[in-house]
């Protein structure tokens, strides 16, 4: 099983999911979303603090509308297999644009 710190960005390279970058633990949500590529898919994990002292580990499947169709298909078909390798995922979000990942949108998944 993978162990992870927060936030993490994963990409598929040579048909394997690899860690692309490890962000700062104190990174803001806006900095996190700004780190997502505008025209390529990614998986991301973010520790979302929604109430003081409480957090949920969110898995983001990022597939922007501008990404290549083949890339979207590869990420979609690898999604479930990859998630099974992770521990502690409490919230899952599939997003094609940043409005689907707004803080209010994430809170809807949590509640």
From TrEMBL:
Subcellular location: Cytoplasm, Cytoskeleton
Cytoplasm keyword on record: yes
Short name of any one Pfam family annotated for the protein: Cofilin_ADF
Keyword Kinase listed: no
Coiled coil spans: none
Keywords: Actin-binding, Cytoplasm, Cytoskeleton
Domain ADF-H: 1-111
Annotated InterPro entries: ADF-H, ADF-H/Gelsolin-like_dom_sf, ADF/Cofilin
SMART domains assigned to the protein according to its UniProt record, in alphabetical order: ADF (SM00102)
Domain of life: Eukaryota
Family classification: Belongs to the actin-binding proteins ADF family.
Classification via PANTHER family: COFILIN-RELATED
UniProt protein name: LOW QUALITY PROTEIN: putative actin-depolymerizing factor 11
Organism: Camelina sativa
